[in-house]
UniProtKB/TrEMBL annotation:
Its membrane topology: Multi-pass membrane protein
Protein name listed in UniProt: Thiol reductant ABC exporter subunit CydC
ABC transporter domain ranges (all copies): 330-558
Keyword Lyase: no
Coiled-coil boundaries: none
Organism annotation: Pseudonocardia ailaonensis
């Protein structure tokens, strides 16, 4: 929570003004009741009207001041809290974009972290920061006033305020610590269950698992409801304890005041002021137990929020120097990569892609092909080696600088629930409609209208159309290198061949790297690299590899339905023609 408070440091003056305005509003409320007590008690003695005129004016002034100060406190503190909340969201989104930790969290859980847990910043600043500081300032002044009227009354009020403003909130915070942690976890579980059920609805229906998924959502909702009920109980007990302490303090002040009046140590008018000041004083600490009870939930939310912000980067920070955008040679030397502490996925591979050449990297599943694509997209870092594009080492450039020169079609391109135009403009926000229609023509999507909605995850488009749309976005960036990572995965044979032909035709003379386990389209490639177990087994032109009789030749024979010689274990994943 201290780290969360530190996020508000740039707006410290705004919060200080909010605390000051809150203190003025609370002090005006206490002063209004104390002055009203003096006015009523004095008026009962039938003094001259002029003796009451100043008090009447002050009463009106305090009433106006209280409302204005309370409005200013709400305005200033909420403005500062919402601006801080916007900064926190920016930091979270920026960290997600820089480190790509999205896959480390479940989708529903990540939504809960970005929404509910981030909102905890606002709760802490508005309810957990301003009221306690205002209570400290005004409480001290109120105790000083009561002590000036009657020493015993001031000490009793100080004790009551300490009980209601410190002891009760501490007990509420302790009691709310467990429910707060469970509430954050239950909220995340409910969000995850909902997202999984909605996204997986077709499969759940197909396998008759809908009832189980709905039951999981209901169970998560019931768990959150139980935690909320426990939280409400704690809030109610805190409010009741504060009211009890306030009542006892009020009766104690009244008894002490009456005894002082009877003993001649206090006049009747100050007695009324003392008692009603004690009554008004507990307005100062009334919000504190509820705020303290929320500290457990805020603390749990802050931990979950900083889990995202503290996620270590998958790509080391590097220079933001630009990468050559014109067609350039790509030279990969000694590239090694791994995931975490696991074994090397890439074990020192060497690959050359001349400017304007079309090169394919082939191999069975698990060979390290997608890891190679992730490194080129700068979604993953290498352990050793170099990747030079036109002389610039991509491993020593920032992800943004690399992606300005390297683009393409990832294995599972995301299509946003918007229009075709907006999906294309992700790549080039300033592109005009003529540019967009031109690139659609190149990928053979010119039959679609730019205003056509594509639906959630592009469900209104076929699989081949989504791949073409992803390629259109890549072409809009005018990259020096185009990377196609399994662009025909999950497509039937006819659609696969048509889509691959369109992708390679649209790529034209641009340097292109095709990463695939499929043999379709290999005859159109200038050079092939066969990768297995993180190493390059063979490379050459398609004709050379057929003549060599290695992995590629055996896989091609299998794809054509020919008998497969012994020793072709590497061809476990092949394609159909």
């Amino acid at each position: 929570m201290l780290r969360m408070l530190a996020l508000a440091r740039p707006r410290g003056m705004r919060f200080a003004l909010g605390v000051l305005a809150g203190a003025v509003a609370t002090a005006s409320g206490v002063g209004l009741l104390a002055l009203a007590a003096w006015l009523i008690a004095t008026a009962a003695q039938h003094p001259a009207v002029t003796a009451l005129s100043v008090a009447v004016v002050l009463t009106r002034a305090l009433g106006v001041t209280r409302g204005v100060a309370r409005y200013l406190e709400r305005l200033v503190t909420h403005d500062a809290a919402l601006r801080t909340l916007a900064d926190v969201r920016d930091r979270v989104y920026a960290r997600l974009a820089e480190t790509e930790p999205v896959r480390r969290f479940r989708s529903g859980d990540l939504v809960a972290r970005l929404v509910s847990d981030t909102d905890a910043t606002q709760d802490l600043l508005v309810r957990g920061l301003t009221p306690p500081l205002s209570a400290l300032v005004v409480g001290a002044g109120t105790v000083a006033l009561s002590t000036a009227l009657l020493t015993q009354g001031g000490l009793l009020l100080a004790g009551g305020l300490l009980l209601a403003g410190l002891a009760v909130p501490l007990l509420a915070a302790r009691a709310g610590r467990g429910p707060g942690r469970r509430a954050a976890a239950a909220r995340a579980e409910l969000a995850t269950a909902l997202v999984d059920t909605l996204h997986g609805a077709p499969d759940l229906l197909a396998y008759g698992a809908t009832d189980a998924a709905v039951a999981r959502v209901a169970a998560a909702d019931a768990a959150l409801t139980r935690v909320a009920r426990r939280d409400a109980t704690i809030l109610g007990l805190g409010a009741g304890a504060t009211a009890l302490v306030a009542g006892l303090t009020l009766w104690g002040s009244l008894l002490l005041g009456v005894a002082a009046v009877q003993g001649g140590r206090l006049d009747p008018v100050p007695l009324a002021v003392l008692v009603l000041t004690a009554l008004a004083a507990f307005e100062i600490v009334a919000p504190l137990p509820a705020a303290a009870a929320r500290l457990g939930a805020i603390s749990a939310s802050s931990r979950r929020l900083f889990d995202v912000l503290d996620t270590p980067p998958q790509v080391r920070p590097a220079s933001a120097e630009p990468v050559p955008a014109a067609p350039a040679d790509l030279r990969i030397r000694g590239l090694r990569a791994r995931y975490g502490d696991g074994p090397d996925v890439l074990r020192g591979i060497d690959i050359d892609i001349p400017a304007g050449a079309h090169v394919a990297v082939l191999g069975p599943s698990g060979a390290g092909k997608s890891t190679l694509a992730a490194i080129l997209f700068r979604f993953h870092d290498a352990e050793a080696g170099s990747v030079r594009l036109g002389g610039a080492d991509l491993l020593r450039r920032s992800p943004d600088a690399v992606r300005a020169a390297v683009s393409g079609v990832p294995q599972d391109p995301h299509v946003f629930d918007s229009t075709l135009r907006e999906n294309l403009r992700l790549a080039r926000p300033g592109a005009g409609d003529d540019d967009l229609r031109g690139v659609l023509h190149r990928v053979r999507l010119d039959g679609l209208d730019l205003d056509d909605p594509v639906g959630p995850r592009g469900h209104r488009l076929s699989g081949g159309m989504r791949q073409r749309l992803a390629l259109a976005r890549a072409l809009l960036t005018d990259p020096a290198l185009l990377v196609l990572d399994e662009p025909t995965a999950h497509l039937d044979a006819d659609t696969r061949d048509a889509v691959l032909d369109d992708l390679l035709t649209a790529a034209g003379g641009r340097s292109t790297l095709l990463v695939t386990h499929d043999l379709a389209g290999c005859s159109r490639m200038d050079h092939l690299y066969v990768v297995a177990d993180g190493r390059v087994l063979e490379h050459g032109t398609p004709a050379d590899l057929r003549e060599a009789g290695g992995w590629f030749a055996r896989a091609a024979d299998t794809a054509l339905g020919r008998s497969t010689p012994s020793g072709t274990a590497l061809s476990s994943t092949t394609a159909t023609p």
